[in-house]
């Protein structure tokens, strides 16, 4: 149950599938990056899966999301194919952005994923813009802006929330408070303990939930999304979670102890929490879970094969997709 609503078996299986898909995808990325197969930098979403999945499962395919530099999880949670995500990270032309976006700029407008963003706080005004466009055309879509605790100290946070509140835009701001802004713990850089209290400055409702509990995240997301869809304006949802891996793959993590990370893995792993609830309550069977695990394993294997066998973009394609060609009028 979530609130007064029963959760369907299909939704429970979808949650487990997407959380596990994200976890296995990120584990594969970690391995392949360290092996030198993936260019650039990658930032992993391990430990935060319940937030992205819980929020995106409350959305329609036509709704919008904006992401961060840690965007693979959001992209997969919104419904992207693992093989095309993998190809994008490999820099191959079969990727979502033809291999030109890579890890920090992956996007798929076809599912409303407006893009990961290498700029901290870069997604606020994009989500507000998408929500304004919806309002102007009298649409029913909702925009969601994912951001970290560090981004809440950027000017775009305040600009975005203020504009959304003034115009009652259909946008939901989701703070993934993973306790670390790069190498800085939240208590050293943020004056408030809870980011959600800042919503009061904009006469905006807020909620704070356990970001590692997909049930709690989903319940808060449904309420915020439905409110936005009714035309009642934005909501700030803070999801308390934890970044299990370093800021980037290869991060020496000298700013925290291994004991702290292991403790969080033991007590706050979102997938473990999910299993500890659904198995004792008999919400899903071992057979159903095993079938999902097998499906995910096969998809990750296929994604790696697809990426490694895909071609790189041709040099002459370097300037493709940069400009919109002006239409010639024949009037």
From TrEMBL:
Keyword Oxidoreductase on entry: yes
Chain residue ranges for the region called Disordered: 308-331
Cofactor(s) listed: thiamine diphosphate
Record-level Gene Ontology MF annotations: pyruvate dehydrogenase (acetyl-transferring) activity
CDD domains: TPP_E1_PDC_ADC_BCADC
Alphabetically ordered keywords of this record: Oxidoreductase, Pyruvate, Thiamine pyrophosphate
Taxonomy, superkingdom: Bacteria
A Pfam family that the UniProt record links to this protein: E1_dh
Residue ranges, compositional bias (Acidic residues): 314-331
Keyword Oxidoreductase attributed: yes
GO biological process, one term: pyruvate decarboxylation to acetyl-CoA
Domain annotation Dehydrogenase E1 component: ranges: 18-316
PANTHER family xref list: PYRUVATE DEHYDROGENASE E1 COMPONENT SUBUNIT ALPHA, PYRUVATE DEHYDROGENASE E1 COMPONENT, ALPHA SUBUNIT BACTERIAL AND ORGANELLAR
Protein name: Pyruvate dehydrogenase
């Amino acid at each position: 149950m979530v609130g007064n609503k029963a959760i369907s078996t299909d939704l429970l299986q979808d949650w487990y599938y997407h959380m596990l898909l994200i976890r296995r995808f990120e584990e594969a990325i970690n391995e392949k990056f360290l092996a030198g197969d993936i260019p650039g930098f990658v930032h992993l979403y391990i430990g935060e899966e319940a937030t992205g999945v819980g929020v995106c499962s409350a959305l329609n395919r036509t709704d919008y999301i904006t992401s961060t530099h840690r965007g693979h999880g959001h992209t997969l949670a919104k419904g992207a194919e693992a093989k095309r995500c993998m190809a994008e990270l490999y820099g191959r032309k079969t990727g979502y952005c033809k291999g030109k976006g890579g890890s920090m700029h992956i996007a798929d407008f076809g599912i409303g994923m407006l893009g990961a963003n290498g700029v901290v706080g870069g997604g606020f005004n994009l989500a507000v813009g998408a929500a304004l466009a919806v309002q102007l055309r009298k649409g029913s879509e909702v925009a969601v802006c994912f951001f970290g605790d560090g981004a809440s100290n950027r000017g775009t946070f305040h600009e975005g929330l203020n504009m959304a509140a003034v115009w009652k835009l259909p946008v939901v701001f989701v703070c993934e408070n993973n306790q670390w802004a790069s190498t800085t713990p939240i208590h050293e850089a943020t004056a408030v303990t809870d980011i959600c209290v800042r919503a009061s400055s904009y006469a905006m409702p807020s909620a704070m939930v356990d970001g590692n509990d997909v049930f709690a995240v989903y319940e808060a997301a449904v309420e915020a999304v439905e409110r936005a869809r009714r035309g009642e304006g934005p909501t700030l949802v803070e999801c308390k979670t934890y970044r299990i891996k370093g800021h980037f793959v290869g991060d020496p993590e000298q700013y925290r102890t291994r004991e702290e990370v292991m403790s969080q893995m033991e007590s706050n792993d979102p997938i473990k929490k999910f299993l500890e609830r659904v198995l004792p309550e008999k919400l899903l069977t071992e057979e159903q879970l095993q079938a999902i695990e097998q499906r995910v394993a096969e998809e990750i294997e296929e994604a790696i094969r697809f990426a490694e066998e895909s071609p790189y973009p041709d040099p002459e394609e370097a300037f493709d997709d940069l400009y919109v060609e002006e239409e010639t009028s024949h009037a």
